[in-house]
Amino acid sequence: MIPVEVYAQTIRGFLTPVHRYLDDESVTEIMINGPDEVFIEQRGKLFRTDARFSPEELRSAIHNIAQFQGVTVDNERPILEARLPDGSRVEAILPPAGSQGPHVAIRRFSKDKLTVEKLLQLGALTHTAAEALCMMVEHKQNVIVAGGTGSGKTSMLNCLSSFIPSGERVVVIEDARELQLQGDHVVQLETQKPDPNGRGAVTTGDLFKATLRMRPDRIVVGEIRGGEALELVQAMTSGHGGCMSTVHATYPSDTLNRLETMALMSKVSLPLSALRAQIASAVDIIVQTSRMRDGSRGVTHITEVTGTDANGNYTLCDLFVRNGHEGSGRSTLVPTGNMPRCIEAIHSSGSRLPEAMYAAALRRNDAHAGLNGASHAHELARRTPEMP
């Protein structure tokens, strides 16, 4: 077997035209649109570079990466999903599927773990929102982190994992290892592609079924992409609280529709009304991430799923929303005055939500119903235990 170090040196040789970007921590994506066109994403913005490949050099790099991954890429199998030795994710498409290709996208990951403190410094979160999320995660709310491509979903999930109480057993399922969960007892599982003869495949669904027999306190799925959505939903509603995952979706309402669509891809046939009821019961909190106009990333909504209405449509309640002009430096995540349904469990444990949420609840009730309408919020504050 060829040592990883030899592969790493060989692959870097083929990728010489983009060396400086592979070594630049501020570059998060390298996009090669054929030999003569190379773009990079740097600090959230796209730039065209002067880097160039020869056609032979680019094809050789792709085949070498495939060899390192132990797979074959050719005209009959023109799509490559792989990893570089440093952990960077590679997606390559050869002609004829890529008519002007080969096309290659290299997603790079920071060597340093992104922490909640760093998110606070960047303005992606506020102290109040972080404290609220900490309480919700501690009290085993099922959380879906949603957002578009490159919006920071994986980084946010990593940070949320730091709120999981120590001593809990967390099982992680991914297509390829990207999550760096910050816990003491983490079991990492990865799917496996079939060999050239179509044997040996291990799917997310396979791992999910095995996970349920491994005594997990929490299950984390790196990304929901297909029919395994139904299995996650069923786990969430069958005693496995505190599950987490990510989904590609632009708004909180889209998240539930995406889960619904993917759950319908499973081999299990359910009436739509029953499926919607399960999803609404399973998912507690949606953390919506977005890439701002200036290239920065942040949380735009923290939304609670409250059920379905008489027509079977999902009902949502925003707990936090981002106000101001996104990416201008003047936007911030603020509490809406709505309280999560888990507040009674939080109070019963002797804890409190951030004080700013209670203050927002008082202001909201005063604004909507006058001073008398604030009685519920005042009663809520009165019943809430004082912290020492």
Describe this structure in words.
It is a single chain. The chain is α/β, with parallel strands linked by helices and 388 residues long. The chain folds into two domains: 4-107, Beta-Lactamase; 116-336, Rossmann fold (3-Layer(aba) Sandwich), CATH 3.40.50.300. 33% of the residues lie in helices and 23% in strands. The protein contains 13 helices and 15 strands. The strands form two sheets. It has a nine-stranded mixed sheet, sandwiched between helices. α8 packs across α9. The longest helix has 15 residues, at 55-69.
Strand order, main sheet: write it out: 9-8-10-11-7-12-13-14-15
Return the CATH class of the largest domain: Alpha Beta
Order of helices and strands: HHEEEHEEEHHEHEEHEHEHHEEEEHHH
Average pLDDT rating: 87
How many domains would you count in the coordinates? 2
Number of helical regions: 13
What's the total number of strands?
Answer: 15
* Sheet of most strands: 9 strands, mixed
CATH architecture of the largest domain: 3-Layer(aba) Sandwich
Strand content: 15-25%
Distance N to C terminus: 61 Å
Give me the CATH superfamily of the largest domain.
P-loop containing nucleotide triphosphate hydrolases
CATH topological fold name of the largest domain: Rossmann fold
Secondary-structure class? alpha/beta
| Low-pLDDT residue spans | none
Radius of gyration: 23 Å
